[in-house]
Amino acid sequence: MGAWILGTAGFVLYFFYDINSLKWQNKILSRFFWLGTACVLVSAVWAAAVFSDFSGRLLPEILLYGAAGVLFLVLLLYTLFFAIPFDETYVEENHSREACTEGVYALCRHPGVLWFAGLFLCLWGLTGEPAGGIYFLTMIFWNLLYVVFQDIWTFPRTFINYREYKRETPFILPGIKSIRACFFRGRKRKET
To answer: Membrane-spanning residues where (predicted)?
Structure first.
């Protein structure tokens, strides 16, 4: 229960961070993104520790969930902190800038939610406890709710090209066109 409360508090802090960045611009509240991230991270480790039960589990199953979880974690970190300009996104109070529309952000408008869901599903699978599903699925739900809020309220007020980006790029689930844009944009086709 404690991990659930801490993770939920992390997402509440994310909502306040977004509102603050556009409305209040309070210096203390501008740290809520990092505090929220710490809450979600600590809650995930806490839940994984509480719900872990490896008795009767096969090593290949544990390794598969672990490897997939690491892959989703790397994709999440890349998407949130390396695929976009770090200072403009997380340090500077910068309005009227352009949204990143290339790379993983050509795949869908919120690729981080895919990697977050994959990571938390892998953590649930790794723990082997059905009871842990309440925590892991709730965190995925809060993340989905947060990106809906960002898509409707935060990002249209932050990025000058967000309406056009919404028209051209799927919300969460990639399509054939967005997969091509993500992986093949800027590459010339070989002439036959």
So the answer is: 32-51, 63-84, 104-126, 132-149
